[in-house]
Write a structure and sequence with these properties.
The chain has 246 residues and is mostly helical. The chain contains 11 helices and no strands. The chain has helices spanning 2-10, 15-39, 58-75, 82-99, 102-107, 118-135, 150-170, 174-180, 184-192, 200-205, 211-239.
């Protein structure tokens, strides 16, 4: 294990990313455990931070940690030093606290335990997936694969990969588009297939009652909704079930 870590993480220049991801996951699990204990009003858990009666959301602490970790990381030049790893971990913990309240920041209201609050958990899962792909050595938009093709070859590949990933995102396929930034074939498949019925692409290009619109809604009911329900159950297991209707 030690040899693998040295070869694949430290020597490959991924130590800071590894520390970021570990701290990110640990902080997310901790804060979700904390808010669930507070939600249950468990007596032995400290509870919310409320100086002077004002509830301080943990996104505030996350922003402070991100500033400390980000500025500290910029000041350190040695990528593999202990201080570099520490600042990356601080930045990762802060990012987890911020993204855990992403929906609150987006809507500018406390939607943490509402259906809208599920968005925060989805964003956290996407961040973990992206960091995991980069730890495996994948690079966004196929940069490494295009490295030997010259300037115009690199520009062409990057532009193509970005375009197909954006089309997949516009079609409402968030996971396909995001993963497609790293694996071009996934983005191409997402860009070719039918859009989700309520996506920007479908609203603009699929006329109401058209064959494509009907097929998109049929596919949504048959394939997408069961997967979404499974994802919601996983989210509820880890982060807690929403109790407030949006």
């Amino acid at each position: 294990m030690g040899e693998w870590f040295t070869r694949e993480i430290a020597d490959a220049g991924r130590l800071r990313l590894f520390c970021f991801l570990v701290a990110f996951v640990a902080a997310f699990l901790f804060i979700r455990f904390s808010v669930r204990m507070i939600r249950r009003q468990v007596r032995w858990w400290p509870g919310n931070v409320t100086p002077g009666g004002r509830h301080i959301h943990h996104v505030v602490f996350g922003l402070v940690l991100m500033c400390v970790g980000g500025v500290g990381g910029l000041a350190i030049t040695a990528d593999s030093s202990g201080w570099a790893a520490a600042t990356a971990a601080v930045f990762g913990a802060g990012t987890a606290l911020v993204l855990d309240e992403f929906a609150l920041v987006l809507h500018l209201q406390d939607v943490y335990w509402s259906e809208q609050g599920r968005l925060s958990v989805e964003v956290v899962f996407i961040t973990i997936a992206l960091c995991g792909l980069m730890l495996l050595g994948l690079r966004p938009l196929g940069v490494d694969d295009a490295a030997g093709d010259g300037v115009w070859g690199i520009a062409g590949i990057l532009l193509f990969n970005l375009c197909v990933a954006m089309i997949a995102l516009l079609k409402g396929k968030v996971w396909t588009g995001v993963i497609g930034l790293f694996i071009g074939l996934v983005a191409i498949v997402g860009a070719i297939r039918l859009a989700r019925p309520d996506s920007p692409w479908a609203r603009r290009r699929y006329a109401e009652g058209s064959r494509k619109e009907r097929r998109a809604r049929t596919r949504e009911r048959r394939y997408r909704l069961p997967v979404q329900r499974l994802g919601d159950r996983l989210s509820d297991l880890i982060a807690g079930r929403p109790s407030i209707k949006s």
